[in-house]
Fold:
Amino acid sequence: PVPAPDPALFSLPAPPAAKPTEILDTGMRVTSPARIGSPITVSVLAMYWIWSIAVFMTSVRFISALLEAFIYFKTMCCAAPAKQKQTAATGAVFLCFLLAISACGQTDYGVRMSELFPRAQADCPEWLELANMSGSPVNLRNWKYGHPDDTCLISAVDFVIPAGGFAVLTKDKTLFSSKYPAVTLVAQPVRWKTMDNYHDTLLVWDSSGVLRESAGWDYRWFSSWTNQSLARISFLTSGLAKEAWVVAVTPSPGQPNAETMWRAGGASLEIGPIPFTPNNDGRDDYLSINLSLPAAATAVVSVYGFDGRKYLDLPQPPSPQYLWNGTLASGGPAPVGPFFVVAEITCNGTNQVLRKKGVLWR
Structure:
């Protein structure tokens, strides 16, 4: 008879038992309680919560980024202990990367303060102009402006600035509209933050409480500011910088500022025609004096005779164009012959003099 086979020859060996810190081929992790309290994991979690508290005060976008980072971190912490140091370093870099991307990804609505009128008059209340520099409409519903300790609601209902458009906030809408009836997009906040006549700072927050714009002014920035508005001439410069603002020749609420055309480049002076003939014949009766100035510059423009005698000083504040009719400051006619138009310019402590020669005939 044939002997029965040994059963041990046909049985498979049992798989080795997994150690607490090993990873099985199936990709499933065997829980290791000791890993939860490792110094690296604790430091990582502490960093996450510190960042979470700080970022929560600024934007919901940051929270989203932090949650993504935490999920990534939690997954990576499931690796074997030998890889924890590398995992922590990788996770920290990834977390900081997400925070940076989230910060850069904040939506810029393009709302800028473009003109200010702090010095109210009997026929015109205080007002400020907001410009939408973006390519999309912006709804200012539940936006606020003012100081950090004194904010005012701009509008509790829809108040939309069209793309490339302008809106005006004012203390008294009725009085403002009587002064500027052509301006249609006007809002009167329930409570008005009074602007200081000499120096002040205004901030604008969106409906989520994120700071979107800031602007400031100081009377010492301007040599001839009486009751004019302040026009912003550059949106590439911070609204808190004196280079961003000039005294407006003519207020232009609800419209682009004319000063952006002649106060954003270098200094120049042009006159014409030469000669000019102020004899009231309807031809060449006025001399056109065209001036361009840097943003922070002030200027005094005068007309002198060929002998050096001053004929007159042209009105302040500086204007992009003057028209001279050939009369002296006293009201009499200027002598026939050559003359000089002189612009004395001061910019950031530097003086510059521009001269142009003209001829007067009658």
The chain has a mean pLDDT of 79. The chain has five helices and 19 strands. Residues 84-104 form the longest helix (21 residues). The first strand starts at residue 111 and ends at 117.
